[in-house]
Design brief:
Strand 1 and strand 2 form a beta hairpin. The protein starts with a helix and ends with a helix. The chain is built from three helices and two strands. The protein has one domain. It has a two-stranded antiparallel ribbon. By secondary structure, it is mainly α.
Length: 93
């Protein structure tokens, strides 16, 4: 998880402490931006590997590693994003 989220005053583990609605929206935007950055980096790395002239077996191993790394990096952000969206919906109800 990027340092900006880890150091966010409301970030604690997989949850978010009491936040003002505007802070929730700001944090939601931050999470979405972080996911976009992770996805962009992944796609860029994948394109580099696909275009490389290395052995096909090595390419496939590298692609699998990139996919796993991408999934691991996204999981905490996605979980927190879902939690945050639920909190926003609960407040709206």
């Amino acid at each position: 998880m990027p340092a900006n989220m880890a150091n966010h005053p409301a970030h604690i583990g997989n949850g978010v402490t009491h936040m003002h609605p505007s802070e929730l929206q700001s944090f939601l935007q931050s999470l979405r931006a972080t996911l976009a950055d992770i996805d962009f980096e992944y796609e860029s790395d994948m394109e580099t590997v696909r275009k490389s002239s290395v052995d096909e077996l090595f390419k496939q191993m590298t692609i699998r590693k990139l996919q796993e790394h991408h999934r691991e990096r996204r999981m905490p952000c996605v979980a927190q994003l879902e939690h945050l969206q639920q909190r926003i919906q609960a407040r709206a109800a």
